[in-house]
Amino acid sequence: MYLKSLELLQFKNHEKTRMDFSPQINCFTGLNGSGKTNILDGIHYLSLTKSAVQSSDSLNVRHEQDFFAVKGNLEIEGKALEVRCTFELGKKKQIWQNGKALNKTSEHVGLIPLVLIAPDDTELIKGGSEGRRKFFDGLLSQLDRNYLNQLIRYHHFLKQRNALLKQFAESGRRDLTLLTGYDKEMVELSKVLAGRRSELMEEVAPMLQEHYEEISQGQEKVTITYQTEALREDFEDHFVSLRKKDFITKNSNAGIHKDDYNFQIGDHPIRKIGSQGQQKSFIIALKLAQFQVFENEKGEKPLLLLDDIFDKLDDTRIAQMMQLISKHTFGQIFLTDARPERSHSILTELDSEVFFFGVENGKVKAEQ
Questions:
Q1: Which of 60, 79, 101, 365 shows the greatest Cβ crowding within 10 Å of its Cβ?
Q2: Check: CATH 1.20.1050.90 for 127-297?
């Protein structure tokens, strides 16, 4: 897979930007705030139809404008593909493939697999369970469209059930027949989705350990443990048994939206005892495992986006990453760096084609 070119129109601080890329390494340099990360986010949008940074599409629109467009030309399995994503304030986003508008954005997710390693990734360790669920759901959604559709259905029923619980509290009347209908849907979907999440953990765990050792040169054992109640034999009874609590809290207290993933080093949570270096190594190992899962399942290497990675790693870990890159472990790579002299020094030593782009105030200039 090869992203040949990218066009950004009124996207964040890019008024009108067009770039042609190397199939190997593409490096964007410039001061912080110049628009380097916004280019990576444009590629992310092209792949997943959403920003990696902003939760609302309207926040991606350039200041004082009312729309944005992201367009990419790719080659996938020897075939040309043009993808265009557009959004106008007050309207729904639209995704086009080779000039044909898609009915649902979910039809596009998974076509352009992508892995992003970003500065705030350690929030997966330090933050709440929702961020960890989103990460693994995003991974599975790129691999399995059926999983994505079932996940969308689950969250639809969860939203409806919670609204019904609030209605019960406000009116003082309870329609248990309607509630039972939502219960049945959520229980069955929870079982299926939890089963797929559990299968993924069996695949990821050995990859995580292998890559952790590569990056950190450490001998500690690192693991991920998936926590869910949906796979217990009496889950349906357990779900119903929490109704009294649901009526009080006006929220659903059982289901896969309550799942979590424990990240451990040795026998302890890495967020509690892991050093900063160990936590960084864990996250990079996790992202490399994500990359490997995509490659194994899809038969091709996903796009790899590295945002300010040189600033977040010590020299030893940078050297380990560069060793992996020099072995052509990855496919097409896009990375950013605030220090041009550093990235030139590191990347020009590799046996790879490297395109450098200078970025300043949302304007991009290809360097010779």
A1: 60
A2: yes
For the chain, domain boundaries: 1-113+300-368, 127-297
The beta strand positions in 131-205, using DSSP E, are none
Structure tokens at 170: 């406000």
Superfamily of structural domain 1-113+300-368: P-loop containing nucleotide triphosphate hydrolases (3.40.50.300)
In whole angstroms, what is the distance from residue 49 CA to residue 84 CA? Answer: 10
* Amino acid identity at 315: D
Name the residue among 257, 274, 48, 27 with its Cα closest to residue 158: 257
Tens digits of pLDDT across the chain (368 residues): 999 999 999 999 999 999 999 999 999 999 999 999 999 999 999 999 999 999 899 999 999 999 999 999 999 988 999 999 999 999 999 999 999 999 999 899 999 999 999 988 999 999 999 999 999 999 999 999 999 999 999 999 999 999 999 999 999 999 999 999 999 999 999 999 999 999 999 999 999 999 998 887 777 899 999 999 999 999 999 999 999 999 999 999 999 999 999 999 999 999 999 988 889 889 989 999 999 999 999 888 999 999 998 876 777 778 777 878 877 889 999 999 999 999 999 998 888 999 999 999 999 999 86
